[in-house]
């Protein structure tokens, strides 16, 4: 019996197939009828993918059942410390380090004592034209979870 493929290996195969097929993440998300950022994160191994979406993604990418099986598995969500050295990821971490305390204060002021869920959560990315250079717009949309005593 073959073991289930590691999610990291499945992600590498997804990325290879995507590049070789000349597909964007947006095209894949549209073809499997799923949100863009969720699709990208899920196919890179950060979410379990429902069977219908895993099968659809593998069909779009020409990947086999072993990849679909891996995509369906629950991930171990963690970050490779080397990824923190990537300039884009580092700048996102830096933005949260700078603005995190202010966002925390504003969440507490507006909602009370609690947190924004990263489980009951949506995230989106958009491009906004600007004469000084296009802007990256990232939206975090998380359910407020109040602390209960």
From TrEMBL:
* Record-annotated Cyanate lyase C-terminal domain positions: 78-149
* UniProt entry keywords in alphabetical sequence: Lyase
* Gene3D superfamilies named among the record's database cross-references: Cyanate lyase, C-terminal domain, lambda repressor-like DNA-binding domains
User: Which SUPFAM superfamilies would you find in this protein's record?
Assistant: Cyanase C-terminal domain (SSF55234), lambda repressor-like DNA-binding domains (SSF47413)
| Pfam families hit by this protein | Cyanate_lyase (PF02560), CYNS_N (PF21291)
Catalytic activity reads: cyanate + hydrogencarbonate + 3 H(+) = NH4(+) + 2 CO2
EC number(s) given by UniProt: 4.2.1.104
Which residues does the entry assign to the active site, renumbered to this chain?
91, 94, 117
What the entry lists under PANTHER family is as follows: CYANATE HYDRATASE
Q: Give the family per the record.
A: Belongs to the cyanase family.
Question: Tell me, what does this protein do in biology?
Answer: Catalyzes the reaction of cyanate with bicarbonate to produce ammonia and carbon dioxide.
What protein am I looking at? Answer: Cyanate hydratase
The organism's lineage is:
Bacteria, Bacillati, Actinomycetota, Actinomycetes, Propionibacteriales
- The gene name on file is cynS
């Amino acid at each position: 019996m073959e073991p289930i493929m590691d999610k990291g290996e499945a992600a590498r195969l997804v990325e290879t197939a995507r590049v070789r097929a000349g597909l964007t993440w947006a095209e894949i998300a549209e073809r499997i009828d799923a949100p863009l950022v969720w699709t990208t994160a899920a196919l890179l191994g950060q979410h379990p993918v429902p069977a219908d979406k895993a099968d659809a993604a593998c069909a779009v990418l020409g990947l086999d059942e072993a990849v679909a099986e891996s995509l369906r598995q629950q991930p171990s969500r963690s970050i490779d410390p080397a990824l923190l050295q990537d300039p884009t990821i580092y700048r996102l971490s830096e933005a949260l380090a700078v603005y995190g305390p202010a966002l925390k204060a504003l969440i507490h002021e507006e909602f009370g004592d609690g947190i924004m869920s990263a489980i009951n959560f949506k995230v989106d990315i958009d491009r906004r034209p600007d004469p000084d250079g296009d802007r990256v717009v990232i939206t975090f949309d998380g359910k407020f979870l109040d602390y209960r005593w």
